[in-house]
Amino acid sequence: MGVGMVKITVSGHPGSGTSTLVSGLMAHFNWTSLNGGDVFRSEAKRRGLSLAEFGQLCTKDLEVDRQLDAMLQEQMSNEDAEDIVESRLSGWWAYRLGIDCVRLWIEVEDEERARRVVGREQCTLEEAIEANAKRTAVDAERFMELYGILPQQREPYTIVLDGTNLSREQILAAAIEILEASA
User: Which ranges of the chain does DSSP label H, i.e. alpha helix?
Assistant: First the structure.
């Protein structure tokens, strides 16, 4: 894997630990990252909208989602692309673009993902389970309508890491081992 190319995509459902993993990989390897959520926030700001307003626009106008995904794919394809790309569909985009990199999906059982969200969002376990399920269903419907894919389908991923019973340190260690073996 060369300099200035995507080395790994990190994907997973909300609460699976993708952001935590990316932070650890950045610190360990001194790499850069591109977060799909940052692209979303940047575009909301560019349009002069709050995140909530921009989120509403995206649900009403699927073309906005297409434009955001096209921006992410363009950034991933650049010669000076970030080392790590994190988003729900980054593995799919790398796969479809033919980018030779590790495409990692972090699989975490629903209840464990909800427990992780509780600690971050100060809500009850039941609220987190319900919110995660709703978000996953809405996203699945949108991605199926837009692209005919579900983020968690195994096809594009070179590695599926079950992080349900692993600590953040264990997930990071596993990802580092995978990356060092593929270098």
Answer: 18-29, 36-46, 51-60, 62-77, 90-97, 110-121, 125-147, 168-182
Distances, alpha carbon 171 to alpha carbons 29, 87, 140, 176, 178, in Å: 15, 17, 25, 9, 11
Instruction: Give pLDDT, residue 58.
Output: 82
How much is the pLDDT for 1? 39
CA angle 35, 40, 45 (to 5 degrees): 125
**Domain edges within the chain:** 8-178
The 3-state DSSP class for residue 88 equals coil
Residues of the chain above pLDDT 70, percent: 98
Distance CA 61, CA 72 (A): 18
Please check whether the domain covering 8-178 is classified as CATH 3.40.50.300: yes
Determine the Cα–Cα distance for residues 84 and 132; give it in Å rounded to an integer: 24
Query: How much of the chain exceeds pLDDT 90, in percent?
Result: 68
Determine the average pLDDT of the residues in 90-108: 96
Who contacts 108 (Cβ-Cβ below 8 Å, separation ≥6)?
A: 12, 13, 15, 16, 17, 116, 162, 163, 164
CA distance 116 to 139: 20
